[in-house]
Amino acid sequence: MEEISGNGDAHGNLLKPNSIHASGSFKSSLSGRSGARNSPAFRRLQSSRTPRRDLRSGSWSLQWIRSNRVVFWLLLITMWAYIGFHVQSRWAHSDHRQKEFVGYKDGAFGVKNQEDASKDSKSNGSNPPNFAVKEPKGGKNIKNSDSSDSKLSVKRITSMVKSSMSKRGRRVLKKVAPKVPVMESTENESDDVLIPKRNTSFGLMVGSFGNIEDRIFEWSPEKRKGTCDRKGRFAKIVWSRTIILIFHELSMTGAPLSMMELATELLSCGGYVKAVVLSKKGGLMSEFDKRGISILEDKGEISFKAAMKADLVIAGSAVSSSWIEQYLRRNPAGSNQLVWWIMENRLEYFNRSKNMLGQVKMLTFLSDIQSNQWLSWCKEENIKLKSQPMIVPLSVNDELAFAAGIPCSLNTPAFGAEKMTEKRDFLRIEVRKEMGLSDNDMLVMTLSSVNPAKGQLLLLEAAHLVTGRNVSQRDPIIIESELSLHFIQNQTAVAEHLETNQTGNAVVVKRKPTSKASKKRKRKRSRSNSLSLLDDAETAKQDQRKLRRLLSDKIGAEEQSLKILIGSIGSKSNKVSYVKRILGFLSQSSNMSKSVLWTRATTRVASLYAAADVYVINSQGVGETFGRVTVEAMAFGLPVLGTDAGGTREIVEDKVTGLLHPVGHEGTQILAQNIQFFLNNPPARKKMGLLGRQRVQEKYLKHHTYSRLAEVFIKCMKVK
Q1: pTM for the model
Q2: Residue 95 CB-half CA count within 13 A
Q3: Into how many domains does the chain fold?
Q4: What is the pLDDT of residues 18-33, one digit of tens each?
Q5: Which residues are CB-neighbours of 359 under 8 A, at least 6 positions away?
Q6: Secondary element (H or E) of residue 567
Q7: What does the pLDDT look like over 343-394, one tens digit per residue?
Q8: What Å distances lie between residue 273 and 94, 121, 293, 303, 310, CA to CA?
Q9: What is the domain-level CATH number for residue 651?
Q10: Co-location of 712 and 682 in the same domain
Q11: Which domain holds residue 624?
């Protein structure tokens, strides 16, 4: 019988190998050392072992989306609509500035256009506009002098953007391009370039002296912030209220500075402040950051919605009429919470805003003269106001009052008013030393924007008459009589008060007989009152004698020399053509140019007031609306030489706190006489300065302004 082979059955048929055993045998034979791991058989076996879960989790979902074309296109349309809405909303809320959006190439193309513009200007032979490079936040500082490095960096950025876009050309959406330094025009500050730091033809550029102030006053930015009077009426009204402030610009002039200080006071008293800035040109942006004043990015729809939710809206200039018109068009009911604090007094500003004057809740003005002028214009145009206007004059802020030695909220036991007066005198010595002035120099200062309305050229013409000795001296007897009359009036008032008090006491005693003890007490009171009043009368007589002695005494053998300080160079409101006229006038007189100093626009003016001897406010036309710098100079004890017009007439009492002169060329000769009088009579100017300082303490401090603003807020603020 034949043997049966291992691969067949009993009948000789071949048997199929069991799949389970076969696979197991193959696995055992190939999984050991004898099998090659990279052999084709091993790769075939491992490739066939793909788990079903991976297929279901990854490729199945993509296959399902591809198979459902409707769902696929709906997803694409939704993504495209969302991205378009995102781009449009960012553009609408970005104040129309140049920014990088998804799918746009503004950064690279903006730099290229500027380079092309500069090439075109060079080819045409014209001078390219001046640009200042502003570095984005968080970036490295780019120096203006390293022009080659900046050009290389711009080229690198553009090449990177182009290469990244070429790699992702098939994609519809592209990443945001890297930020490029923004180029801003600096044409408004070209007058600062016209005046070099040292030149015998133009004069000397001085300041600013902020570091000297900090060293002498020993204060930090935290100490410079005034504290709110929590018990006062103003603080109780604005606590937890939301107030919108409208700034027409951020220049270092009266209206923006006053509105900025109002925002600071509101924040200090617990209010919520949001600022709407119509023009961001100026130098106050850094001050806003230091004081924590938030600015709304959009001056359009976002500002209108914020104003609708606010408790009060205050517009700080007649230039804000365009914003007011658009806001009331969207929200007519908002006029009941709208206050318009107008700080201009020219017909052009009235014509610009006359259509909206009768639609706001209340108008506020700075002086009676300004209010009467605007009301007469309204009467001519038949404009009916909703309410009677109120007068809210400007005041000296706490920082300047503290530096001037006037009691304010910044005073502490270690830094009282007397201590600060000593520091102010020491500051005067240090600053005058930096300016190169001697004790024999009389510094006449004017701090205003340099334009024809401020009359700096007329001031220099008057000074030219003084230095050339072509001016007739004013008779000091006339001014002495005026000052004497001022003290006589005070003495008469004291005497009348004394007589009425004595007669009143006599009548009271006769009509109401009382006990002996009460009679004794009343007699003691009447005696003490009469003695105090007699002391006041005696003090007035002594002051009158001292005044006569001061006016009769001269400085001595040596005569004082005249120096003039003009600011503010670099201000947005300066007129370059007018600055060139002034420089041309100085170049024709070598003696005059040696007496002129220049200073840049700055908020640190305490050192300038401390160094000066006389202040000049030579506003032309209808005069100054109020004169914020006038009351600041008076706070430092400076006599004022001003035009007899506008708000200066209300602030300065002629021949008492200063001397007034007519506007125009007619007043140039009188202004020269007034300067010559102060040169010859230093004691008289010191006495006038002290009287002006007393007037500021009586009428123009911070609590005077905010007490009147409290009345305005009560009438116009939204009732909770």
Answers
A1: 0.68
A2: 12
A3: 3
A4: 444 444 444 444 444 4
A5: 324, 328, 335, 386
A6: strand 561-569
A7: 999 999 999 999 999 999 999 999 999 999 999 999 999 999 999 999 999 9
A8: 20, 45, 7, 12, 9
A9: 3.40.50.2000
A10: no
A11: 439-475+557-699
